[in-house]
Amino acid sequence: MSNSIFRKNISLLALLPFLLIVPAIAQEEEAAPESEQPQARLRIRFMERPVAIEPGVDPQLPEIVVPDLAIDPETDPEFIRRMNSITEYSETVDSIEESGGAWASGLSEQLSSIGELEQQQGNHPGAIAAFDRAIHISRISNGLHTLDQVPIVESMIDSYLLLGDWAQADLYNNYLFFVQQKAYGPEDPRIIPVLDRLATWNMQAFNVGYGESLGVRLSSAQLLFRAAARLVGTHFGRGDERFVHYLRNLAISGYQVARYPEYRVEVDRPEFRGMQEVLANRLNQGGSILPQGYGLGEAALRGIVEYYEQSSTDVYSIAEVITHLADWYLLFDRRRSADFYYLRAWEMLAAEENSEELIQKLFGQVTLIPTYEEEPRNLNIRVHSSSMETFNFDYADVELDVTALGQARSVEVLSEETPENMLMLSRLRREVRSSRFRPMLEGGVPVRSGRHQFRYRYWY
Fold first, then answer.
1. What's the burial of 358, exposed, middle or buried (CB within 10 Å: 0-12/13-18/19+)?
2. With a cut of 70, which residues of the chain have pLDDT below it?
3. Is residue 151 part of a domain?
4. Which of 164, 224, 399, 435 has its CA 20 to 30 A from that of 86?
């Protein structure tokens, strides 16, 4: 099996939301002898969603895109042009400083342009330095909380993430929210994408285990997504497609709360409760500040079904979201409800002219659930992943049966076991056994099926 080793300063932001965009320079290296490798390398940290293996077809896993932190001038034809532009902007900065001083208002735009060019060159420390000075000048010239600085801060966050500096990225994501919430207030529709950005950031930070309290991450994400959904409904109506986006994110966060109930208790500690109450007040968001699990996910998925039933004429799309609700009930051992909604979805498809094709598409293969958990699963969420110096990845092919309850049985790892991967494959096997799959249906009824093969990519 192939494998790749990534160098220091890796941030796992990329492993989570964007098809594994790992912010580091990747190149093949010789693995160090086992005796010299840190023990952490022998433990699986992330497992991606598996890809079904079909006879005679090589499974297509998501591509790993590796943006360069340093740009090679010999392979980038724009390198020289950007360097010349940086020189020109720098000369303009010097000229403005000579006539207007170190805090002249015209400097902010020039420094921001330098930062963008340095970012494109892969010089993220240089980009951050330029952006930081541009922000300070903007605040002095235009006021502490003006919106002029927002695009500059957003660009600076991108560089911090590519450098793996989660502390600064967290600080400036919260600063972005503070500035825009102060400008717009809690009920202005322009605050909706701001809420979305900070909520998404908190879910990303939770997924890699970053923060003093992971329960607060989940609580913040839910408060922000709920506020965004409420504002979309108020200003644009529940028929707006963004409403479904926020409901789906609430279902994802509810699933995480249900998986890690211990984090719910954290938010009730005095040092965190006050902070979350302040956030709820800023959002004009009522309800509990404690993160919600099963009930929130069920309500969100029901809301999505209602949306599709009212706004869509695509029978397959309606059946699919009904199936997601059935998956939710199966995850939490509500078999009667799961069977009811599986049958309802199956009957909808069975009534169509191309019923066989549609049923095969939705129920012809067992599927890992929940299907909307697309990011790699962190197997040790209590450890912040970006603290690791290197990451490897490898693959394992697995064969299993799936019961009518979606449980994995007779799990067998087909890939070769070696002394180096023995412990990791053992952990992977345990994770697969504890997973839940959507079972195959016969006549709309879940049944046991066997010898399904999947390829897993895991990171260690």
1. buried
2. 1-41, 65-70, 385-390
3. yes
4. 164
